[in-house]
Model the fold of this input.
Amino acid sequence: MDTSQRDFPVKIFFCGVESMKSIRRLLALAMGAVLLLSACSSWKNKADHDSSRLTWGTWGAYGRQEKFLRLLEETYPDIQPEFISYTGGNCTGYSWAQMRADDIPDIFITSQILDQDLAKERLVDLSSYPFINGFSNSILDQVSMDGGIYLLPVSNSMYGIFYNKSLMEEKGWEVPANFQELEVLCHEIQKEGLIPGIVGTKLTGGPFSTVFNLAKTDWLTTPEGVAWEKDFLAGNASAEGMWEGTMDYVQRYMDIGMLHTDPEDRNNPELILDYLGNRKAVFCTAVQLVNITEFPETGDKIGMMPFISRDGSKNTYMYNPTFYFGISKRLTEPGNEKKLEDAIKILSLLYSPEGQATFIDKDTPCVMSVLDSTTVPEDSLIYDAQQALWEGRAFPMTYANWENVLADIGQAYKEWFRGENGMDKTTCIAQMDKLQQGYLNHSDELYFCESTADFTLEETGRLLGKALGSHADVDAVMVPLGEFHEGGVEIREGVTGKLYEGRINVDIVSAICPGYDGEYAVMTMTGAQAKALAQEGFDAVGDGNPFPYMLVTRGDSELEDAKSYQVGFFMKGYTQETAQSYATQIYPDSLRSIVRTWMEEQKTVSPDGNPWE
Done:
């Protein structure tokens, strides 16, 4: 998930849903703070999958996986995967675009199960392998697809309501067991001149999750609620007549001061550091993960409690798998027996206590192993959350299948929390129905272009170069291509996602664009200098091992050595030395928006079409 958060002396990791409409269906999320391995982007076509090495698709977070990869090398030194780098702007969307195109790597990784039927078609059923026995029935029930298991989670991120534990203990306040106790406590907090609770609203996924999580303390996780959600998403049910009780309960949370909003609309890390760390508020309701258990300035300890139900019988935590692993069904075909054997070894190690331990350390206090045998200390931040998971009081975070309306519904809830635009609980329910029906009735309008064929990575890069070149009215564009480098070096400045045949919407555009977005540069240089730079490549990290540049020119013309040209560059797709060597102009414009506008004009795109004149 792309964010523009500032760096802090103490880092606080968080998940949320991007509120910008143009990329509103990204996860970020999603929730979560997704983290996956890295790789090599040299796939030209599906035939490349026939190599003897296992291909392993990743999400540009090699450093977070190094412990497991070292364990894998120590345990099975003969297994050396070929990593496939992806660092684009829509990890989840791209993984499922690969799935639809039947172009997934041998070891498939994603953050959400977006299409069960497609998963069953493309992935190996893992239900008969011994490592499945380490999972609890509750987790297996969540990923079961008609009795088969095709994707397994790797660690769960636990979510609840954070609070200043030290402050609570000093005041003699107990963690409430039901809403009545919460109401009394909030009254005591206000008498002390403090804010009971702050809620994160910078990303609209925060308000969306707040309301849905409270619904899960009541009816939404019952068989009736599960059936309603399925019918609502299909257009066969309404929010009106079902959500009134939940909205009344949310209103009660607001009335007791639990859902105070920040006037500056700061991001979640700042809210925790400021409101909880400085004892301005006691509670913080936000979709986030923290990597600290106490505030460094004061030593105050952080606690996490569940979302409180009315009578306390269904106080709930939420969880979200960090990511899922699967194996391509291609490995069950004749000739791939050794690769399948190696893939099973990898998953067997991954879902062993040793493998799970590599994903959890002192910087991940809200993350827990998926193994049923795992225990955490009683003084752990997530001890109660783990008990809730075992007891069936923890539920998956809502995201999958809501992507198209999640941000806008969250915006309505945000306005309600803040008392803006006349939004209240009744209008929020009406907005839910309006937004979902609007999406279903106009879903075709979300697609503005169509690809007539599968593109290679180079062809995709050329396409993006044409789009930027046309918009910037330059003579050429220098396009970095991402790839895996020894030591796990990847770049977000380059093109790492391929465009596949089919209809194109904003999710597809963000999937093929680089991870960095927001500006581009134009430099003046001679043809000889441009060609030399393209030959030299992009030394992104200054290690003398450059990433390839592809020089895309207007009309595919050959640049004249002595002639001066205007050359466009992606955001951060050049070194500081390069920028200082030439007259450079920076333009604040989104490449994703540029590509979308250009594709809308083209109507269709093909690898050998769409000339840039």
Q: What stands out?
A: The radius of gyration is 25 Å. Residues 1-50 have pLDDT under 50 and may be disordered.
